[in-house]
Write a structure and sequence with these properties.
By secondary structure, this protein is mainly alpha-helical. The chain has 5 helices and 2 strands.
């Protein structure tokens, strides 16, 4: 599912093949989340952890032209269309939602259940897999 971390892939395979209900192996969605956010510095030469994930994705998927030190990821060429604007606005919002709604609560909040049920874990992995695929396949515009 998630293109980079083998651990997340093994977790998803283990969950998918299990006939019984159980919780997911540790760090499945957070591992996939890390793959998405760590691919950006590799593609764009930006410093990792220089900004929050929210600001990172807002900047990287911004429809504004790139600035020195602030490259953009392009999911399609900017042809001035509503499709270009919608696609990049959606990617920015989707990324923020993945981190705010899935990764951050499971990584920062005490008292939450350790991991979701297997079907929820697969859904979370699928969400981060989509995001990681978009990041990995995007063109860098400097």
């Amino acid at each position: 599912m998630c293109p980079a971390p083998a651990r997340a892939g093994r977790a998803a395979a283990q969950i998918a093949s299990s006939p019984t209900r159980h919780t997911a192996p540790t760090a499945s969605a957070p591992t996939c989340a890390a793959a998405a956010s760590h691919t950006i510095p590799e593609k764009t030469d930006q410093q990792p952890n220089a900004v929050s994930e929210t600001n990172l994705f807002k900047n990287i998927f911004s429809q504004d032209p790139p600035k020195p030190g602030q490259p953009r990821l392009r999911l399609m060429a900017n042809d001035g269309s509503d499709t270009f604007r919608s696609l990049h606005r959606g990617a920015m919002s989707f990324a923020e939602g993945c981190y705010a709604g899935i990764r951050n609560p499971s990584s920062h909040e005490d008292g939450l259940p350790e991991l979701p049920e297997h079907h929820q874990a697969l859904e979370q992995l699928a969400a981060f897999s989509v995001l990681a695929h978009w990041v990995a396949s995007a063109a860098v515009e400097s």
